[in-house]
Amino acid sequence: QVQLVESGGGLVQAGGSLRLSCAASGRTFSSYTMGWFRQAPGKEREFVARITWGGGTTYYADSVKGRFTISRDNAKNTVYLQMNSLKPEDTAVYYCAVRIGRYGSSWYEYDYWGQGTQVTVSS
Question: Which is deepest, 14, 26, 49, 76, by most CB within 10 Å?
Answer without folding.
Answer: 49
